[in-house]
Amino acid sequence: MASTLTPALAAGINSEVFSGKSQKTSDMSAPRDNNGAYDLADLDGTPMNFGIAEDDDVGGRGNGANGGAWNDTPMSPRSPSSDGGDMDEYKDQGSPSNKRPGDSDKKSEGPDKTLRRLAQNREAARKSRLRKKAYVQQLESSRIRLQQLEQELQRARQQGVYHGDGAAGGGGTLPGLNSNPNPGAAQFDLEYGRWVEEHSRQTSELRTAVNQRSTDDELRTLVDQCLAHYDELFKLKSQAAKMDVFHLVSGMWKTPAERCFMWMGGFRPSEMLKIIIPQVEPLTEQQLMAICNLQQSSQQAEDALSQGMESLQQSLADTLSAGNMSASSNVANYMGQMAMAMGKLGTLESFVRQADSLRQQSLQQMHRTLNIRQSAKGFLAMADYHARLRALSSLWAARPRD
C-alpha cells in the first residue's frame, strides 16, 4: 500500500535524491495516482514536477506493484555551493564596475567642496577679526577722549578757571578748553605720560650706574638709551604738531611751572646748556670752547625763531583786524580774512618743528663734546631740573589758600 506524503516531506524532495539514473519529468496534475495516494501538488497548493526513474516506482525500493516502502534516508538540503552563482552575482552588483557613473564624480568633488568651505570659513573669520579690531579702536579712542577731558578738568581746577556757578557765561564751561578735543592731541598726551614714566625709569638706572661707578661701556649703553628716548619724544611732538599745533604750543601737556619756562613747545637749548655745564665740570679747554660755541649758536637760532614767531603774530593780527570788524557787514570779506589767517597758521607748525630740531641737535652735539661720564651727569641734570619743576607745580597747587 502506498504511503501518503505530508506537505513537509514533499517540500524536501528534490532532484538530487535520484542521482545516477536518467530522469524525466512527469506531470503530477492528476488528483490521484494509480495506488490511490493524494497528489503532492494538491497538498502543497503549487504544481510541482518530480524526476522519477523509469525502472523504479516512487518507493525507490522494489517495484510499484509490490508497494515498496519509501526510503527512510533523510534528504540532504542543497549545498551552499549550489547557490554560489547567485552569491557571486549579488557580490558583483556592488563591484566598482557595476556602480553608477555619478558616484565617482561625487567622491572626487568631495575634497574640492571641503576646501571651498574651509576658505569661506577663513574669510568669514578674517572679516570678523577686522570688525572686532575696528570696534576696539573706537573704544580706545573714546577712552582717550574721556581721559583728556578729565585731565583738562583737573588742570583747570588747579588753575582756578573752573566756574561751577556759570559765571563764565557758559553754565559751568571751561574757558579756553575745547569741548570737543582733538583725538590726536589726546593721543599725544597719553603717549607723553608713558614717555615720562619710561624716562623716570631710565634716569633711575643711570643714576645708580653713576653712583656705583660702573664701567664706561655700561654707562655708554645707558646714555645711548636716554638720547634715543629724547629722539622718540621729538617724533611724537612732530606728529602732534600735524594734528593740533595749538595744543603743543600752549603746553597743556605740561605742568603749570613747566609752561612758564616753555619756548615754542619745549625748553630753550641755550638755557639748558647753562644748567648742564656746572654739573659736568671740570671741563677741558677744548670742551669749554665747544660748549660756549654751541651755546652761542643755539642762542642765535632761538632769536631768529622768536623773531619769526613775532612777525607771524603781527601778521595774523593785521589780517584779522583789517577792514570793518563787524562780521555781518561783509560776509565775503570776513571769510576771505579767515582764509588768509588759516594759510598763515601753517607757518606756526614749521616754527615748532624747527625749534624741536634745534633742541635735538643741541643734545647730540653736547653728547659728542663731553665724555661718557660727563654726558651721563648732563642727562641726570636735565631730568632733575624738570622733575623739580613738576614738584613745584604740585606744591603750588596744594598750597593753603587763606
Automatic annotation (TrEMBL):
<dbReference type="InterPro" id="IPR025422">
    <property type="entry name" value="TGA_domain"/>
</dbReference>
<feature type="compositionally biased region" description="Polar residues">
    <location>
        <begin position="16"/>
        <end position="28"/>
    </location>
</feature>
<feature type="domain" description="DOG1">
    <location>
        <begin position="185"/>
        <end position="399"/>
    </location>
</feature>
<feature type="region of interest" description="Disordered">
    <location>
        <begin position="162"/>
        <end position="183"/>
    </location>
</feature>
<dbReference type="InterPro" id="IPR004827">
    <property type="entry name" value="bZIP"/>
</dbReference>
<feature type="compositionally biased region" description="Polar residues">
    <location>
        <begin position="73"/>
        <end position="82"/>
    </location>
</feature>
<feature type="compositionally biased region" description="Basic and acidic residues">
    <location>
        <begin position="100"/>
        <end position="115"/>
    </location>
</feature>
<dbReference type="GO" id="GO:0006351">
    <property type="term" value="P:DNA-templated transcription"/>
</dbReference>
<keyword id="KW-0805">Transcription regulation</keyword>
<dbReference type="GO" id="GO:0003700">
    <property type="term" value="F:DNA-binding transcription factor activity"/>
</dbReference>
<feature type="domain" description="BZIP">
    <location>
        <begin position="111"/>
        <end position="155"/>
    </location>
</feature>
<dbReference type="InterPro" id="IPR046347">
    <property type="entry name" value="bZIP_sf"/>
</dbReference>
<dbReference type="Pfam" id="PF14144">
    <property type="entry name" value="DOG1"/>
</dbReference>
<dbReference type="GO" id="GO:0005634">
    <property type="term" value="C:nucleus"/>
</dbReference>
<dbReference type="GO" id="GO:0043565">
    <property type="term" value="F:sequence-specific DNA binding"/>
</dbReference>
<keyword id="KW-0539">Nucleus</keyword>
<keyword id="KW-0804">Transcription</keyword>
<protein>
    <submittedName>
        <fullName>BZIP transcription factor</fullName>
    </submittedName>
</protein>
<keyword id="KW-0238">DNA-binding</keyword>
<feature type="region of interest" description="Disordered">
    <location>
        <begin position="1"/>
        <end position="133"/>
    </location>
</feature>
<comment type="similarity">
    <text>Belongs to the bZIP family.</text>
</comment>
<dbReference type="Pfam" id="PF00170">
    <property type="entry name" value="bZIP_1"/>
</dbReference>
